[in-house]
Amino acid sequence: MSSAAPETISIALTLNGRAHSARVAPEVMLADFLRESCGLTGTKIGCDQATCGACTVLIDGAPAASCATFAWQADGAAVTTIEGLAANGALDPVQEAFKAKSAFQCGYCTPGMILLAKALLTANPAPDRATIRDWISANVCRCTGYQMIVEAVEDAARRMRETVR
Amino acid sequence: MSGPLRAVGAALPRVDADLKVTGAARYTVDVALPRMLHAKVLRSPHAHARVTHIDARAAAATPGVAAVITRDKLNGLNATYGYFIKDQPIVALDKVRYIGDMVAAVAAETEEQAVRALERIEVRYEPLPTVATIEAALAADAPALFETPPPGIVPAYGTGASGFKDPAKNVCYRFCYTTGDPAAFARADHVFADEFRFSRMQHYHLEPFVTVARVEGGEIELWSSCQNPFPLRKELARVFNHPEQAIRVHVPFIGAGYGAKNNCKTEPIAVLLAKMSGRPVRFCMTQEENFLTQSQHAAILKLETAVSRDGRFIARKSEILLDAGAYSDASPLVAEKAGYRINGPYRWEYIDSRCDCVMTNTTPAGPFRGFGGTQAGWASESQIDMIARRLGLDPVAIRKKNLLKLGEAYVPGESGMDSDLAEGLDLVCREIGYGRGERTKGRGIGIAIGFKDSGGVNKPAEAQVKATTTGGVIVNCGTVEIGQGIQTAFTRIVAELFACPPARVAYAAINTDVTPFDQGTNASSAIVVMGQALERAARDCIARVLAFAAAELKCAAEDLRLENWSVIKDNQAHALAPMIMRHFGGTGFEFVGRGFFKPETDHHAPLEAKCVSWEIGWGAAEVEVDEETGRVAVKKLVVSGDAGRAIHKDACRGQDEGAAMMGLGQALFETMRYDGAELVNIAAAKYRVPLANDLPESFRAVTQEQGHGPGPFGAKGMGEAGMLPVAAAIANAIEDAVGVRVTSLPLSPEKVLAALDAKREKP
Fold it and tell me: Which of B22, B159, B196, B558 sees the fewest Cβ atoms within 10 Å?
């Protein structure tokens, strides 16, 4: 351990498609950095134990629990939060699907669920129902009972295929 | 109204969809004020102890600390709060009563500084004997949680019902209900006595308990994740001796509650720290702290049920013991409902029910989806199946024989059933394939009917609807959006009445200064209580618009109807906006309508007012039991609620599915495990809730629209009922599958295997 440990660390990341640089204290978690320093409160903190998934963001396209990721770990990475999903004012197909299928209730888990689904559909554009259940099982939704979320992910897959076509 | 419904039942997205899918929805956790401090609390490591000494001087001198609360900072306040019984202190006074009881609080510039300061508070405890379970608390030599009874009230009850405060040591409240002729027991062919155990869950709302408060210029202002802002305002006024008109409560979107977010949680500490520091204070609990703040009620339920040999229900004596935890919270109300609902939607000649709230040194129990109906339904619907099997009768047939009919009063003096119970039962039997097909070894089907009154007790509600010059409509009422979709339901109802596009109706932010009174978003009361007030408010507003237009057009208001912000007279449309500006001037006007609803007070009704509505949850489960391991797999789960009229079909379906999965968790694995008085599986990493992988292979929630509800367009409250039948249906299915009965939740492999082993030993 260096006796001259820096009080802050310089980081540079791509945040929702834009270059962003900041100085962060080494113990600051990515979720807090996003919410408090960047004002991106769409990222929600639920359990704060990397278990419930409400804080899910995409780091280089992969879902990550931002409550258990240090802000400095995002240095050099592309971070996508729920605020970065809609492009040019148009909802992402996953957002459209969650909206059309009412795949939310209180909405607290919804940003994390949508980003998780986005990562799934990027990795696998045509997942079967079992695969969707498996992926969605990374996050907790206490309101919906999941079935409507699973259906929304199927709907999103359809929408994304149609967009590509 | 005439013609087909346009907004009600329309397949349009929920009104909160855009905000919620983009992350723009604002919750209390997102509220930040300039110069805001952060609060943390010191919690008791002892389950029961006298607090002999507290010294917080070092904490107060810690960098960043602005205010510290200990018991000596409560002078001049009414330092305890609660529903019927004011027993929970803002921070510990003489004693701590459970592990996690709040002892001191700090506000500092950062949460980290607050946590460091808490470490410097010196507390000396003198540990006392602990009671961690219902049995231990009721033992003759048990220590008392309260040496002197805390202040409280017993509400007025009507015919047959009664309540008692502190009827026995460690029993804070007792509810009793009796009706009919006790001699009925003697006329029965059989009396079956069975005992059931119900384990407790945590609500597991993802948004924690959180408040942001500021006290400036003699005014208390708070943003709170709270589902009953008006009772909260009143309680804070009492605690702080502060005038109600100088307390303003805002309720943004709520990250769910399932019952937990009623009354004081984080609010008194946030307000007091804000008052002491002169700065805004945010008190946001962690999920561990949620687990130490509120839970469901564990219970022991003893039923003695008298029946005729052909399966007619005759009499039932029930004794229910609820584990209230360390403070009374809503326990008296939950006792009232558990005691009142224990007999289910069936006909009886005699009922004698007693429900006690037993204080233990564990997390305080409070309102939880189903509100006593879950505990009652678990026992009653399990026992009905057991009785059917003992008598050699079909479990569905025995229910049908005894079910109350549509319109038939629950008990003397009560309102009638507003759902056709047999219709719903037939539906879930059909969906699950009851009585059809070949029997497969290890597989079985179970049915249950969950039951609760809905609409709360004697609740008043007031709503306001206003219409702007250009035909914008604003709904102003105190029902909070906690996930159930009430903003959608209420704006669609008003759009229907105004005959306008749903997009023209907005739902106002809740601010107790201007929002009309509401008792709380709970008890499935929004549609049937506030909904009736809202319909009246909308009609009042429309009547004012039509009266205005009639004067302008020199005709009778009866000759006019409203359509898309025009008035229609003799098939001719007259646009309202120009008419309004001609009369009121170019800056326009607003028409304001108000509506009020309250069930009539009625001393013949056991709860002093007839229940507004009845919420029924029909459930059916098909399980496969592994006889080697005792593992139960739910292959098929069907639940059905009756929305009366589904204002938004997806929202109704989502409520029932979410409730059913909560019931599935309760049935199979989800429980707060205590080692003595210590909660072992605290928070997400150790506490298991259902995930998508727990979905049964086949899962259906069917929303019935029977049309008999008292709400607008025949609507009824829903959302709790989907949970009520699930655990009993699964237990009933297990017996159907492998012939063993488990009477204690959760239905874990260990318990099922033990029952199978016992059966194998004694064939």
Answer: B558
